[in-house]
Each structure stands twice: as structure tokens, then as C-alpha cells.
Amino acid sequence: MSQKEQRLRAAQLAATAAGLDALLIPPSADLQYLTGYDAHALERLTLLVLPADGEPTLIVPAWSAPRPRPPTPTACGSSTTSTAPTPTSS
């Protein structure tokens, strides 16, 4: 489990312990700590929805959504493509 996954899971456990169904995390140091995404507060919605149980959802404007990275060569000559998580556009 990656450090980001551990942080998200710890936040989910804290939400459960507090009796919350979910955490709503806007652009902030908390969002960057949990996801590594350095979002800025704008007039359009950017929000991490972190349910106490289940997968998180990052809501961002379509124009600021993370883009897939170009293919990266591998040692055996083939290539792999790394993509960023698919956010929900608002």
C-alpha cells in the first residue's frame, strides 16, 4: 500500500470513528497531503469526496483534469502508458 493510500485509509478510519459518512476536502494543504494534487481554489468546484467506506472521487473542472502521460519505453523495447486517475468533471 502506497503512502497516499495509507493516508486516505487513515482519513477514512477517522471519519468512521467520528460517525461521519464522508469527508469533503476542498483545495487545501489537506488535499495535497492526501492526494499529492496541488489544486487552487477557483470559482469552479474542486473537491475530494472521501467516503468512510469506498473509493474516493476527485471532482475537478474538465480543463484542469490530469492528463495521461506519454508512453514510457521499457527495457525489452515495448512501451507502457501511465495514466493519472480519472476525475469526475464538473
Task: Describe what this molecule looks like in 3D.
This protein is an alpha+beta fold. It has one domain (3-67, 74-89): Creatine Amidinohydrolase, Chain A, domain 1, CATH 3.40.350.10. It is 24% helix and 21% strand. The protein has helices at 3-17, 29-35, and strands at residues 22-25, 47-51, 57-60, 72-73, 79-80, 88-89. The chain has a four-stranded mixed sheet with strand order 1-2-3-6, with helices on one face. Strands 4-5 form a two-stranded antiparallel sheet. It is globular, with a radius of gyration of 15 Å. Residues 76-86 have low confidence and may be disordered.
Strand content is 15-25%
- CATH-wise, what's the superfamily? Creatinase/prolidase N-terminal domain
Unreliable residue stretches: 76-86
SSE series: HEHEEEEE
Query: How many domain regions?
Result: 1
Distance linking N and C termini: 30 Å
Radius of gyration, whole Å: 15 Å
Number of helices: 2
Helix content: 10-25%
Query: Mean pLDDT, as a whole number?
Result: 80
Strand order of the largest sheet: 1-2-3-6
- Structural category: alpha+beta
Do you know the CATH topology? Creatine Amidinohydrolase, Chain A, domain 1
Specify the biggest β-sheet. Answer: 4 strands, mixed
